[in-house]
Known about the structure:
The protein has a 5-stranded mixed beta sheet, with no helix packed on it. It is globular and about 30 Å long. The protein is an all-beta fold. The protein is built from no helices and 9 strands.
Amino acid sequence: MEDLSLIILSPEETLVDTRTGSVTLPGGLAPFTVLPGHAPIISSLTEGNIAYPSGDGEKKVHISSGFVEVIENKVIVSVEP
Length: 81
């Protein structure tokens, strides 16, 4: 099964660098979920939680704002925590 490379970066540090099956992000108009094979996209993010499944349950990272780029099963998120 394909998975996603998820990297969440803040100005100070790398918050997350993992592989996962999906990522739900707080988009400007509504939350949206990225799955493997997702079309390339760049989107702004609003305050909310980035959520993704992990081996020990769902993990969440709360953000105040940010941007996401999705390309070739890589999800790169730049955030203000």
